[in-house]
Amino acid sequence: MSCYKTLKNGFSALLGVAVFLVLMGGGSWLWWKSAIAPMKFSSSISEAVTVKISPGSSAQAIGKKLEEKGLIRSVLAWRIWLFRFKLQQQSPNLQAGTYQLWKTSSLPTIGNKIRQGEITETRFTIPEGWTQKQIAARFEELGYFSAEAFLKAARNTDRAAFPWLPDHLPHLEGFLYPETYQLPRDRATPEFIINLMLKQFEETALPLYQNQDSPYTLKEWVTLASIVEKETVVDRERSRIAAVFAERLERGMRLAADPTVEYGLDITQSKNKPLTIEQVNTPSPYNTYLNAGLPPTPIASPAKPSLKTSVNPPETEYLFFVARYDGTHIFSKTFEEHQAAQRRIQH
After folding, report:
1. Residues 303 and 309 sit within 8 Å (Cβ to Cβ)
2. Is residue 234 in some structural domain?
């Protein structure tokens, strides 16, 4: 932006506020100076106030909350202060989050903290079905720390703090619980976040297993749930998919699950680039087309619905399923029916 435009926009903003104040009457300027000034207290100690601003909160709602908390003198002053951004054709860009604000700060100081997102807590979401690598990459994208720092911390986690973790577990895949987390910004380290996610698994997932007489070990349960998570697109099919895999395990059949092949080869198939015959036939400890039973570890982080249905899957007569292009599946009882279903989808 040129100096001329900057001056022009700045002048327009001041002019708009000035006109507004003139219309208010002779004492308006004194009122404005008083309205944006810091609150005064008899105590010499500044009082900190925690304010939580929810996503989608309007500027009016934020101003009202600040007034109720005793941080600003009036919502009207807040609206006038924000009006200058509208005159400059800018968005105030008030950001959600948890703030620690001081009652001895001026209205512009408080407003700018919210505009700049100077939060005391941070919030992040880990979707169900994500792998450790995807989780690590998300933190790097958010600017918390490098992906490698997260993966290194996961390898070096103090297992003694979580004695329920299976023995000889090579990594934490599957046990970093997918959830929305909120934590102090200064605690956003790989070690703190990994411990937080493991504790969430301990509180949310572990009771599902401990309260059931499951045919699987803890690692087998989470591994099966992770495959169910990756295969399920439509929630109503989740239990049936778990039942098919459980029945195949019971009969000694190979699971033949695409996500296990993808995990073993560190690739992701898509509608336009599905797995090739060569990839399906590539040996890997995780290739359930070639190896019987479950893979050696979970392949992703399952959430509660997949974990719950995989503790003790229901019985079923179905042994096969194939995905339609809308994410639903055709379930079949025999291999011949399964082949026919594949042909129908391909044509």
Report:
1. no
2. yes
Contact 270, 298 (CB under 8 A): no
At 50, is the secondary structure helix, strand, or coil? strand
pLDDT digits (tens, 9 = 90+) for 273-319: 889 999 999 999 999 999 999 999 999 999 999 999 999 999 999 99
Is residue 206 within a helix (H) or strand (E), and if so which, with residue range? helix 206-210
Alpha carbons within 13 angstroms on the beta-carbon side of residue 209 total: 23
- Domain carrying residue 177: 122-204
Tokens for 21, please give them. Answer: 């104040």
Evaluate whether 336 touches 317 at the Cβ level (below 8 Å). no
Q: Which residues contact 309 (CB under 8 A, 6 or more apart)?
A: 225, 228, 238, 239, 242
For residues 292 and 320, the answer to whether their CB atoms sit within 8 Å is no
Q: Among 244, 228, 241, which residue's Cα sits nearest to residue 129?
A: 228
Beta carbons of 221 and 229 less than 8 angstroms apart: no
Count of structural domains within the chain? 3
